[in-house]
Amino acid sequence: MKVINIIKSLVLIYCFVLLNACSNQHKLQASSQNKPANKGLKDYYLNYFPIGVAVSPRSLNSDEEPLIKLNFNSLTPENDMKMSSLHPSEFVYNWENADAIVSYAEQNNMKVRGHTLLWHQQTPAWIFNDAATGKQVSKEVLLQRIKEHIYAVVGRYKGSIYAWDVVNEVISDNPNEFYRKSKYYEICGEDFIFKAFQWAHEADSDAQLFYNDYNEINTSKRAKIIELINKLKSAGIPINGIGLQSHWAISEPSNEQLENTLTDFIKLGLKIQITELDISVYSKEHKAREKKSEDLDTRFTEEREAKQLEQYKMCFSTFRKYKGNISGVTFWNVSDRYSWLDNFPVKNRKDYPLLFDKNLQPKKVYWEVVKF
Ligand code: GLA
């Protein structure tokens, strides 16, 4: 009887040890699947292109910081280099936030993309008006102010910022119109575009200069962008690349649209960068609109997750295919905790456009993007 009891105990101990070993093995596998130690997006793409992200000093001081450091080797200030932040009135420059981002990048061996020298939005009113009379300034005065702005900003970060979005979104979405009818255009005509590139080059002849825009997958808009680039090139204006913002969605671009867009731009002989990538889980809409009842379901459903995963997979395999021409891919925001798409095109409709979830964990789509 005693012997039987001893055998029973031994069998029990053996089973316990065996079970424990299996579960440890399981845990090890799960953790290595979820978090390969010290390997981030930038490491998987080391032989392809830098992987960037749009940040604010707040994100660099938050719990997102370790994730940023592990995954990205290029930073773009989300707002802090736009004219309204950096140069809110004629003789006032706010360098603090922009400096903080640049110095964080330098300490962590990251590149910095400057965004953006001229844009019709987030531009302060002072630049268009005479301070004394309040009247609109002449073309000469506006060009002079633009020149001073570009010299000051590009000059300050000479050697620290390797690429600038010099001009953002000057091509019209209207098929019957070439340029966007912005205040800059109204006062200066197209000259401000040409001059901006020239002055940026004078301020830092080593910086790579980009024209940045959205919706290049639209053939009519793309044709106009190509025409603009050709005009700049034939006027001898220094331009190095085209930035595709790439605010996309589960419904667009198709593989064919993306291929055509990239190959058309590649023919121009310039570098291409994906400058503001995110993939909305809703169908793409280009204009802001009111919330409707169907917008109330904002769950990250399996269906939305699966469609987004396919779309990201297609985009990154195409980017890898053109690695010789694409010199950077930057995500617009860090994680699904916060995205500008939470408020566009519909205010207060949660979106999930990035590779990390609200708890800063890699989503399923992350593992697809790094699997090649
Ligand atoms: C444009 C701008 C970016 C950013 C996004 C949306 O794409 O280039 O700086 O403002 O809109 O937030």
Note down, in words, how this protein is organized.
The protein has 2 domains: 1-34; 37-369, TIM Barrel, CATH 3.20.20. Helix content is 42%, strand content 14%. The protein is built from 13 helices and 9 strands. The chain has helices at 2-34, 41-44, 57-60, 65-71, 83-86, 96-107, 139-156, 183-188, 191-203, 219-234, 255-266, 302-321, 364-369, and strands at 51-55, 74-77, 111-119, 163-168, 208-213, 241-244, 247-249, 271-280, 326-331. The protein has an 8-stranded parallel barrel with strand order 1-2-3-4-5-6-8-9, surrounded by 5 helices. The termini are far apart. The model is unreliable at 15-32 (pLDDT under 50). The site of alpha-D-galactopyranose has 6 residues, from loops.
In short:
The protein has 372 residues and is an alpha/beta fold. It has 2 domains: 1-34; 37-369, TIM Barrel. Helix content is 42%, strand content 14%.
Sheet with the most strands: spatial strand order: 1-2-3-4-5-6-8-9
Mean pLDDT: 93
State the end-to-end distance: 61 Å
Which CATH top level class of the largest domain fits?
Alpha Beta
Count of individual helical segments? 13
**Rg calc:** 25 Å
Biggest sheet architecture: 8 strands, parallel, barrel
Helix percentage: 40-55%
Give the name of the CATH superfamily of the largest domain: Glycosidases
Name given to the CATH architecture of the largest domain: Alpha-Beta Barrel
CATH topology of the largest domain: TIM Barrel
Number of domains: 2
Query: How much strand?
Result: 5-15%
